[in-house]
Amino acid sequence: MASCGRNLVPISDFPTKNDRLDRLKQLFLETFGGYPKFVVRVPGRVNLIGEHIDYCGYGVCPMALQQDMLLAVSENNTRNIVLVNANKKYKKQVLEPAFSGCKSPEWEHYFLCGVRGVQEALPGDFQLKGMNIVADGNIPPSAGLSSSSALVSASALCTFYINGITPVKEDIADLCAKAERYIGTQGGGMDQAIAFLATDGCAKYIEFNPLRATDIKLPEGAVFVIAHSLAEKNKAASNDFNCRVVECRLAAQLLAKAKEVDWRNVKKLGDVHNMLGVDLVEMIQLVKSLLHEESYKKAEIAEILGISELEMEENSLTKNTEDVKTFKLRQRALHVFEEAERVRQFKAICEKTADVGTLRELGSLMYQSHESLRDLYEASHPQLDKIVDISRKFCYGCRLTGAGWGGCTVALVAPDKVEEYLNALKVEFYADLNVAALI
To answer: Mean pLDDT in the chain?
Structure first.
């Protein structure tokens, strides 16, 4: 059994000199009158390539960050969760563990997602212990670096551990991916997988169904710079993210119908791909030949599938996309299959002998990824595009990372160009915003 030991720090094993942990312990002492039993740490992540394809069933290439979510935890003698954040902008919460979702999620709801995921994994008569918790996160929120998933994952891990259960890494990663959907977004499993399966010194190629992770050793001389666009979007507060999930689902179902396979069992583009047994290049050609460029209306989709609009809504849409009138199916499907092919090429290139040519190949794929996310998936933002444009003078490649509509870019830079690139961003991007916000 693989444990989650790297994500857990018993209080007796605290580093002797760590200012952040010392402050966390002190805040816990001041709040609850004693020291925590243990601390949970879950890192943020940056996705190097493979955006908006994990929920379609395709592999991705993230790596963990130093920035993380810390939870200092001890049990209490109630059934409630007392949740305090080191950041005073978040109010103290006294919560019951039950959670059935919400329309306008706050930070504590992400914590409750993790608790609910654990509840559903345990026998129905299992009584969870109450917890006292102080949270301290330094992953920028709404930045595309997985701050919310880190909180969900940390929540689930501390709930298991306080109740005497040590889960298998792959199992808890899968559990957390499903649990976060209670917040309302129909995401994939990339963020949770890298949170538990990351290893030092490499990125990961993460595949799904079943979940598995393979080390990707990045070439020597590859430096990745993350820059915040300072445009923020709470993906759980809009339907943009779920609309893309639904458009991919509908595209998959229309492709399945056209190829005379059982579309009712198709939920992801990866499903129809597997049913047809062809390669990604052939899937790209099928999309181009079978799906038209104009947006599809509900009535047209229902007619093609041979069902009513109401049945289509019940089978394929989410609650917050039922009012969407038109869907761009060809564009979304093309991005997914082409991005999956870029991931395959990225992994293959990393396995070659590293040289400048290798870095240029990787960078080219990153630029292609951003252009596709901007044009086909419409998930970029003018401030992201501006950073990518600036990067072209200094970097091998650059792209948005995370869900998009704001957040961060990740750029592949040669070591001797890093300082020049950072200075260019300060002068050409951040100066206009009157800030200096490099991560």
So the answer is: 91
**Coil/strand/helix, residue 104:** coil
- Determine the distance from the C-alpha atom of residue 38 to the mean position of all C-alpha atoms in its chain, rounded to a whole number: 26
Distance CA 275, CA 278 (A): 9
Token readout for 98 is: 């039950």
222 and 212 in one domain? no
**Pair 248, 333: CB distance under 8 Å:** yes
**Token digits for 226?**
């993350």
Contact, 48 vs 61, CB < 8 A?
A: yes
Q: Cα–Cα distances in Å, from 380 out to 40, 310, 399?
A: 33, 32, 9
- Positions annotated as catalytic residues are 191
Same-domain status, 279 and 142: no
What band does 142 get if pLDDT is binned at 50, 70 and 90? confident
**Which residues, 6+ apart, have CB-to-CB distance to 79 below 8 Å?**
96, 97, 127, 128, 129, 130
Query: How far apart are the C-alpha atoms of 402 and 21, rounded to whole Å?
Result: 28
Domain of residue 209, CATH code: 3.30.230.10
Instruction: Give the domain-ending residue among 171, 192, 216.
Output: 216
Smallest Cα–Cα separation from 399: which of 335, 317, 355, 352?
A: 335
274 vs 267: CA distance, rounded Å:
12
State the residue range of the domain holding 97: 5-216
**202 and 222 assigned to the same domain:** no
233 and 222 within one domain? yes
Q: Evaluate whether 130 touches 76 at the Cβ level (below 8 Å).
A: yes
Q: Which class for 205: exposed (0-12), middle (13-18), buried (19 or more C-beta within 10 A)?
A: buried
pLDDT tens digits for range 54-88: 999 999 999 999 999 999 999 999 999 999 999 99
Burial label, 98 (beta-carbon count in 10 A; 0-12, 13-18, 19+): exposed
Sequence letter at residue 286: L
DSSP strand pairing (130-137 vs 81-85): parallel
CA distance 166 to 159: 10
Q: SS3 sequence, 299-342?
A: HHHHHHHCCCHHHHHHHHCCHHHCCCCEECHHHHHHHHHHHHHH
Cα–Cα dist 139/66, whole Å = 9
